[in-house]
Amino acid sequence: MAKTTLVIMAAGIGSRFGGGIKQLTPVGPGGEIIMDYSIYDAREAGFDEVIFIIRKDLEKDFKEIIGDRIEKILPVKYAFQELDDLPEGFEKPEERTKPWGTGQAVLAIKGLVDNPFVVINADDYYGKEAFVKLHDYLLAHMDAAGQKDPYEISMAGFILKNTLSENGGVTRGVCQTDESGTLKNVKETGEIQYRDGKLMGVDDDKNSVELNEDSYVSMNMWGLYPCFLEELETGFKEFLSNIKEGDIKAEYLLPRIIDKMLKEGRAKVSVLETRDKWFGVTYQEDKQSVMDSIHDLVKKGVYKEKLFS
After folding, report:
1. Cα separation of 234 and 220, whole Å?
2. Per-residue model confidence as pLDDT tens digits over 269-290
3. Domain extent at residue 137
4. Residue 155's closest CA among 80, 217, 94?
5. Distance CA 303, CA 43 (A)
6. 168 with 207: CB under 8 angstroms?
7. Domain count, the chain
8. Does residue 194 lie in a domain region?
9. Is residue 173 in some structural domain?
10. Is 203 helix (H, G, I), strand (E, B) or coil?
C-alpha cells in the first residue's frame, strides 16, 4: 500500500518561541498544543510520516520543542519556506517582509515527498473525520496520482457555522459545489460573523454579502499528489511575473491557485464533507474557548488526558 504524508505549514510560527506564539499555546490538559492533536489524528487515520514546513532560522528551536518529540511517534522531515527562495531571475523586493503565501510554502516540499499528502495549517484543529476521509480518498484514487489533465485534488469541506469565532469576524474560502460534491468555485470571504441574526461577510470587492451557514468552506486542508508540485512551481513564476510594482504584500495562496485551475478546467476537486467542529486561536480571546473544547473532548473520551502516553 502507498504511504501517505501529513504536511504541516508552520513557517508563520514567529521569530521567537513562547506563550505569545499562538501555534505553541498549550491547550490540552497535558500541555499539548493544537498541532499535537492533528498529528495524533493523522497517525490514527493511517498517515505514515510528517513534514514540517518551517523557517530555517527556527530549525534548532523547532526541533527541540516539537520535532524531536514527534520523531518518537512518526518519521519527520523538514522543508523550509524562505522569502528569498525564488526561481532564477527573480529577487525579493528589499521592503518585502511578508511571506509569499501557502502556495510557496507547499512548493518547499518538492523533492521530499513522492506519495500522496494532506496539507494543513499548524494552528487549526480539524477533528478526526477529515483526516480519515482524505487519507482513504487519496489511496482509493491512486490511479489518478500522476494525472494532470485535470489534476485530481480533494478537500475537507467544513460546514461554515462550525468554523466561526465568538470573538470576531473570520476569513473563509466559501465553496460552491455541484450535485456530485465536486467543487465549482471558492470565494475568499472576510469578516464573517453574525450581525442582527444574519451571517454576513465581505467579498473581494469589499461588498457586504449574506452567507448560508451550512455552506462548505475550505480550511486549507487539501489532499494532493506530488505532481501538483509541478503546477505550483510553474504557477509561482507566473505569479511573481504579474505582481504590480510596489506591491510588497501579494501572496501566492492555495485556495486562489486551485480556484484558478478550476476556472481553467485543469483541476477536479472532490469536497469531502466533515461535520466536525473546527477551532483555532484566531483571537487571543479564543484561547480559553479552544482549551474548553479540548478538555470537553478529553472528558468524552475522544482523546486521552496525556495524548501520547
Report:
1. 21
2. 999 999 999 988 777 788 899 9
3. 5-149+220-263+278-299
4. 217
5. 13
6. no
7. 1
8. no
9. no
10. coil
